[in-house]
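Dear colleagues,

As part of the handover before I leave the project, I'm documenting each prediction I ran so the next person doesn't have to rerun anything. This entry is a single chain, and its sequence is reproduced below.
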Amino acid sequence: QVQLVESGGGLVQAGGSLRLSCAASGRTFSGYAMGWLRQAPGKEREFVAAISWSGTSTYYADSVKGRFTIFRDNAKNMVYLQMNNVKPEDTAVYYCAASCYSHKNYYTETDFPSWGQGTQVTVSS
């Protein structure tokens, strides 16, 4: 399996910005779509964003469209999540995840069998 390590989480005020990073290693990173999942207190893990292997196609949960941007650098084995205009409801542990597909038109949390240890994002208001 691919190994994933998230970083960049922390405390941020509502309306602010935060950038999460994911360092990937292992041969399974190559050719697969990547994504971000999150789990808020008292809630189940949910899909946030996904990006195809080529990086040309992205998909976002409705709750983060227009605010979050996922991008990747395959040469550096890195995946990122740029979080802008964050809201208190964005508070969660964020997980970088590897999909079993190279490209899809839509994603759910079940499409990502591998994920990292998570990084905490707390939005204050």
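The radius of gyration is 13 Å. The CA atoms of residues 54 and 113 lie 20 Å apart.

All the best with the project,
I.
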